[in-house]
UniProtKB/TrEMBL annotation:
NCBIfam families: HDIG, lysS_bact, PRK00484.1. GO terms for cellular component: cytosol. It is an enzyme of class 6 (ligase). CDD domains: LysRS_core, LysRS_N. It catalyses: tRNA(Lys) + L-lysine + ATP = L-lysyl-tRNA(Lys) + AMP + diphosphate. Homodimer. The gene is lysS. This is Lysine--tRNA ligase. One of its GO terms (molecular function) is lysine-tRNA ligase activity. Its EC number is 6.1.1.6. GO terms for biological process: lysyl-tRNA aminoacylation. Residues 162-482 form the Aminoacyl-transfer RNA synthetases class-II family profile domain.
Amino acid sequence: MATIDELKKIRLEKLARLKSLGIDPYPADVHRKESIIKARRMVGKEVAVAGRIMGMRGHGKILFLDIVDGSGKVQAVIKSDVCSKKAVTLIPFIDLGDFLAVQGEMGKTQAGEVSVFVKNFQIISKSVRPLPGEWSGLKDIEERYRQRYVDLIVNPEVRDIFLTRSKVITFLRNFLDGDGFIEVETPVLQPLYGGALAKPFITHHNALDVDLYLRISDELYLKRLIVGGFDKVYEVGRDFRNEGIDKSHNPEFTMLEFYWAYANYEDLMKYTETMLASLVKELKGSYKFEYQGKELDFTPPWPRARYRDIVMKYCGIDIDEASDEKKLLAAIKTKKIQLDLTGVVGYGALLDTLYKATARPHLVGPMYLTDRPTAFVALAKRLPKDPTKTASFQLLVAGREILNAYNELNDPEDQEKRWRESEKLGKKGQAEYEAVDEDYIRALEYGMPPTAGWGMGIDNFVAILTNQPSLKNVILFPTLKPEHVQIKQEAPGKHESLGITYEKAKKILEEYIKDPITRMHCLESEMIMRALARHFGENEEEWGIIGLLHDIDWELTKTDTKQHCIKCVEILKKEGATDYLIGTIQSHGYGQGFGDRYYGPPEFKGKTREGRIQHSLAAAETLTGLIVASALIQPDKKLASVKPESLKKKFTNKKFAANCKRDIIMECEQIGVPIDEFLALGLKALQGIHTKLGL
């Protein structure tokens, strides 16, 4: 089979030949009068259509082409005795993927297929790169995201997803417009971010010499418009959050938010049912459809459940009794619930972590989760009968939070007080908190009428409507690592650059790590790092040393974990390690959260991992815990009994081995290794040393 370069060379030669004949392969003017869908209804009449060649078949002196435009597909029949002689001479120059303009009479073949019987045609855009189907197909999912333009050409079902997305947004706009809402635009660049708990992107305005933030939410500016006298406003816009990327999150996403003066959250629940159920019925022809193997029923009215009752049902804790951080931690310990509390500071964050780990995965919906605690809904009005709860709800579908809505807090004193409390949590180490927006407080002081507000992630809802497991599938150009950006801090080329040989590394481990479990963890990390090195074509022994020694100071720091990854400097320097080796080992302690529960040192606050080797180490050493835990629940407690598909299920079940941080394991995808492939690679690596591990 010819390579892509060989095929491209042939096409470039055809291009050059066309130009030498005085034919412009990229003309500005196109002879096109009808779309293909319109032309198909004009049997017996002359038509002029244009599109891309997506199929080509020859039979003697007849050539059959499948021509596709944005409206549909039609067969073009070129007969050498009917088509113009000048056009016939161009046949050797055309290829799949070229754009043609064809003129002729619509008719039907003997087989009954509606076709254009071509009298003339022109090449209007010569394709010099063959479509993937011609040489290897477009199978790699990241390549499909990166080259969405090709994905749309060769996979018609992908185009259908984005047509559905367009219909969803159009429907929602029309629905709101019909009810008297005004569509507005609010700033994307903001001097202070707010309206949600999220990390912002920061940029700098040169002329004003100030830092600005890409908005994380539209909320505060839309409510300023309610203060200004608009009763009903909405915005469909892009928001930006400087957070991780996974199947449910993309740093750039589309939100619909609306605010309705003189309404309350009960009104919004009824309105939401009417709006979204109508949308589902229009798209699907029914209120019922399947999402990832589960039937969803959007027939209104939808079930409702209070937040307190749901938490009680799924983890047995009454949040009215466990009413502060200390009591809730004690209840979690009593119930023996395993949670990853890295970076979790304050009652609200702790409660939210508990709910998301134990309750939310069970909520298929569609259903409303109401009366969420005041501790983590800083912009919602309190319930009059219970000020610890808010007049709020979420719509949950298939375990996903589709939208948030609530009675908007319009008491400026209470709003400022809540933001001050949030800032205090930030000072204690909570990574995401809301800051006081003095201008917004000033707006509230002028008076805002009772208002209910609503915000929905368009991407999330479209993913459910189109049965897609990942948001990337419903975002035309999802955020990806740039294709040709040089990876930072690649491993040095020579083994000696670490300053430590493998034999010496083993002796250092024996000296500083006596606990057999910790020693096994280091060995497991070494094996996965070696497997990754082979995958990338890197120095296997160097990567193995890094994995073996990554926790070298653990026994010295396990009772004072803020020294973990700090004491290692002294140990490794004494043994002759280079700064590169030390820095790489320290990096696995970055980004673990802050505050009293942060196991890493304060010196690492704000540091993030960079480059292939650092992401590899963090993902590898974290994955070991998940694999071993999966083996220990097997009847024979053997690694051989763990299958890649069962390991994937354990990975997606965040309650299982909850301390194995999934977001760190997912760093494998930042270095180009899909999660399924990484899980299989790590499992195979540990199965290779099962005798040493006793598993």
